[in-house]
């Protein structure tokens, strides 16, 4: 599975959009981009995934560049409850093992 | 989304005893379940992959005789930490695959915090 690179930490004001980048320059054609987050002392939570088209659900939007070498997770109106570590993971979507890197620690502030 | 539960949420035990952790998929059947371990301020590390009705596949460095995994049904997997020692104290998290096909999603349980005295 392709390796990903994410910033270590980010801050975002409550109510503003949080844009979390992920670099996956070695992604192959059949690999999906998945995003999970882990709130402190809880199990990870699935957010969204995509292959090449932009995706949106009730939690977030996923923007994947045309060359698929990077993507951005967008939380449109961040709240304090969105404070968590966000993980960008690339893998083939058939019960593959998830490899969690260090992720991005997002701190949402008042 | 799909719901995965774990029991117990927290356990304290004496060194040398065994501890069983249950992982259940509440509203779906999961052919595959996964067990992770997370030490403080570290990321999740996959321990093993569990398939219903077959032996678990352990990651390199994980002792299969120490961490016994049973996946007896499509909704239940158990992890038994045998002869636990203080260094086994950690946050144990399970997940279950949902959806099947090309785009399976893993849903995670809330985790079990184990403290071995």
Summarize the structure.
The complex is a heterodimer of chains A (110) and B (117). Helices cover 0% and strands 45% of the residues of chain A.
Fold and architecture overview:
The complex is a heterodimer of chains A (110) and B (117). Chain A is an all-beta fold and 110 residues long. Helix content of chain A is 0%, strand content 45%. Chain A is built from no helices and nine strands. In chain A, strands 1-9-8-3-4 form a five-stranded mixed β-sheet, with no helix packed on it. Chain A has a four-stranded antiparallel β-sheet with strand order 2-7-6-5, with no helix packed on it. In chain A, 33% of the residues are buried. The mean pLDDT of chain A is 93. Chain B contains no helices and eleven strands. The mean pLDDT of chain B is 92. Chain B has strands spanning 4-7, 10-13, 19-25, 32-38, 45-51, 57-58, 67-73, 76-81, 90-98, 105-108, 112-116. Helix content of chain B is 0%, strand content 53%. With 117 residues, chain B is mostly beta strands. Chain B is globular and about 40 Å long. In chain B, a hairpin with a 6-residue loop joins β4 (32-38) and β5 (45-51). The N and C termini of chain B lie far apart (36 Å). The interface between A and B is medium-sized, with 23 and 27 residues.
Would you spell out the secondary-structure blueprint of this structure?
The complex is a heterodimer of chains A (110) and B (117).
Chain A: E1 9-13, E2 18-23, E3 32-38, E4 45-50, E5 55-56, E6 61-64, E7 70-75, E8 84-91, E9 104-109
Chain B: E1 4-7, E2 10-13, E3 19-25, E4 32-38, E5 45-51, E6 57-58, E7 67-73, E8 76-81, E9 90-98, E10 105-108, E11 112-116
Parallel strand pairs in B: 2-11
Antiparallel strand pairs in B: 1-3, 3-8, 4-5, 4-9, 5-6, 7-8, 9-10, 9-11
């Amino acid at each position: 599975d392709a390796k990903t690179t994410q910033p270590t930490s980010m801050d975002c004001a409550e109510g503003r959009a949080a844009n979390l980048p992920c670099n996956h320059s070695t992604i192959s054609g059949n690999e999906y981009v998945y995003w999970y987050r882990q709130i402190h002392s809880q199990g990870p939570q699935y957010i969204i995934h995509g292959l090449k088209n932009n995706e949106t659900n009730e939690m977030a939007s996923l923007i994947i560049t045309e060359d698929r070498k990077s993507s951005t997770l967008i939380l449109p109106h961040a709240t304090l409850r969105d404070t968590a570590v966000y993980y960008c993971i690339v893998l083939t979507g058939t019960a593959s093992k998830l490899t969690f890197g260090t992720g991005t620690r997002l701190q949402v502030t008042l | 989304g799909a719901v995965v539960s774990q029991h117990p949420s927290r356990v304290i035990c004496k060194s040398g005893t065994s501890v069983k952790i249950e992982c259940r998929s509440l509203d779906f059947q999961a052919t595959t379940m996964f067990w992770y371990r997370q030490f403080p301020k570290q990321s999740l590390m996959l321990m093993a992959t569990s398939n219903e009705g077959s032996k678990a596949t352990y990651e390199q460095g994980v002792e299969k005789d120490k961490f016994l995994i049973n996946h007896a049904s499509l909704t239940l997997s158990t992890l038994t930490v045998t002869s636990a020692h203080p260094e086994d104290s950690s946050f144990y998290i399970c997940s279950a695959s949902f959806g099947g096909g090309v785009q399976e999603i893993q849903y995670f349980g809330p985790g079990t915090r184990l403290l071995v005295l």
